[in-house]
Amino acid sequence: MKKIISILIVLITISSQAQNKKWTLIECVQYALENNISVKQSELDIATADIDRLTAIGNFLPSLNAGSSVSENTGLSFNPLTNNAQTTTFLSVNGNINVGYTLFDGLRNIRTLQRAKISKLASQYRLDKMKDDISLFVANGYLQVILNKANLNVLQSQNEVTQEQIERTEQLVEVGQLPRGDLLEIKAVNASEQQSIINAENSIQISLIGLAQLLLIKDYETFDIEDEGYDIVDSGIVNKDITEILAKSKETRSEIKIAEQNVELAKKDVQIAKGANLPTLSAFFGYNTRFVNTTSFNQQVDPDNPFLTQQIGVVEGTGQSVVGQFPNTIVQEVAADPFINQLYQNDGIGYGLSLNIPIFNGFATKGNIKRSKINLERSKFQLEQTELDLESTVYQAYVDAKGSFKSYEAAKSALESQELAYEYAKERYDVGLTNAFDFSQSKLRFDNAKIEVNRAKYDYIFKLKVLELYFGIPVTELKF
Fold this sequence. Notes:
It is built from 10 helices and 8 strands. It is α+β, with helices and mostly antiparallel strands. The strands form 3 sheets. Strands 1-2-3-8 form a 4-stranded antiparallel beta sheet. A two-stranded antiparallel ribbon has the order 4-7. β1 and β2 form a beta hairpin. Mean pLDDT is 82; it is low at 1-19.
């Protein structure tokens, strides 16, 4: 019984720890990269590229095929062994083995293997880009939850101040130092703050559900994140020159590498299409044998009467008969030879070379070459467009990061001013030099300034990490 109780306690403890688990940003990113459907699909693309590469390697190996057939003939048929027509029923078994090898095919097999390797590399780059995009989505959703939680903390802490002000105002109203209208004004502010707190709690829950859905986590009720220890970690990327960032992004970004590999794939397609104009030389070797269970007939000398004496002519003038002896043969039915013996007796081989020279195929090859060249030009234009898009995106990310930093600094300055104004208004309200409405307005501006600092802070963190990502820093090495 004690063991059962101990096991139950352990299970309850483990379950409680699992429910109270708070996910870090790194854990969320890693979990998303392992479970996201789009990432899994990109991984399947790599597996498909491996199969294409294996198939391309197989084109360099000889082909080996074996075949056999069994048939039964009834009635008048040609005996495959004697090639004579006979009326009988017999079983026929045929077997063959064929080997083929392509000696030259216009270098298409080599080009196909090279293309398969490039295709796998392009699939890997697409997977890397997908992981970068998913990581950014997760980071944005994660920071949104932290922002909502930070805003909730601001509202709750300020509401605590409001609660204290209500108690103090009630005391001052009771002794007649403040009018009752001030108390009503403070209570109205409290009601508004309570509503804002409820809205902030709802925002947290909604953002948590959104993040959980992005991670494919279905347990929304217990899902939560670690909202402490995240601050601005600047690697100095904002102070770098934009040309340096742009050059680095062109070297490291997956979208550029994907476009470059697409150009290489198009070049290989052109080479493969041109290879169809060259002759194809193949070697072949074949072995075949057969077995037939039909009987046959042959002539043998009669052992009892081996010779026959017959007149073959007469002697002219005398009329004397001329006789001769001939073998006395009889026809005998012979059973089929054993199966193994026939396999050796009836086998045969064939080997040689086959040359195929393309002369005219209705402009199909010419059309494929032109089509491949057009695709090559299209892929070059796409590479150029990708470079322009990346340049525009990097410039935008650079401007956004600098702008969000300035916005964050301005928000902090505004918060300092609003905090001084709030403290001054609070002192005046406590001594009865200002009314509750003016004090509540000052407090509201102070609360909004705090919320704006939070928004500017996490907006700057996200845009800073986006810029670092374009600079070539891997997602797993981003510092928060």
